Amino acid sequence: MSKSTRPITSVIEGIQTSDGAGVKLKRIIGSPELDTLDPFLLLDEFKNDDPKAYGSGFPPHPHRGFETVTYMLHGNFRHKDSVGNEGLLTDGSVQWMTAGRGVIHSEMPEQTEGLVWGFQLWINLPKKLKMVEPAYQDIPSDAIPEIVRDGTTVKVIAGKLGEQEGPAQTKIGALYLDIYLQGESDFVAPIPEGWNGFLYVYEGSVESGDGTTVGTGHLAVLGTEGEVRLTGGSGGTRTLLVAGEPINEPIARGGPFVMNTRGEVLQAFEDYQNGVFDKAVS
């Protein structure tokens, strides 16, 4: 008996905005159209070949209570933090950062010309993990496995697809795939029942098994039951498929801090202002 198709429940486009020191980007999750999609707090796409639009980068700023996942399609960004960690994001690489109890870091372009294109995803942490020790996973492009089959190429960044498991170690159940579909090729992926998920099409268009077509620059929110079934557009399609286990806890958000209560957010601001931010304990 074949499994049902996981439907698309809504399609959104997001908004153009800026962050850091004026870096122009598109915000899809975290926008007025889609505030959150538990456990996902934010999805940004940054794409620009004008150095004036990205040259000032993201100077030092704090985070607490969640994880950030930066996936670079093109370009070079250097990451540094307040305790001496440093890494370079290059074409196809990923940085999976657990901010936990607190990180102050910067992300700055390591180029003065050419295209910068990538995504940043914020993933919430449950209350029991919000104050864990900060941690980093710097994952080079050649460490990300690819599944190539019948006109489809899938990069498995996190989670499991068939027998292939992604290199990222996740704090909660999560799946992060980058999918390339040659013209009108098909793709099917099981996702655990009850998980929330989305497609973000960044080149071409894709048709879901429920008949919904999603174009470039649009995010499709998925239902919580059934398999994901996709057919690529005639010119080829590139899309992210991301899913995660919902946390189902209160969310208190204040700028770069995501906690469970307003009091915890205020404490994060106080710790940061008092210079004990990344030394705090739960």
TrEMBL record:
Similarity comment: Belongs to the pirin family.
Protein name, UniProt field: Pirin N-terminal domain-containing protein
InterPro entries in the record: Pirin, Pirin_C_dom, Pirin_N_dom, RmlC-like_jellyroll, RmlC_Cupin_sf
Residue stretches making up the Pirin C-terminal domain: 176-277
Taxon lineage: unclassified sequences, metagenomes, ecological metagenomes
Database matches in Pfam families: Pirin, Pirin_C
PANTHER family per record: PIRIN, PIRIN-RELATED
Domain Pirin N-terminal: 23-123
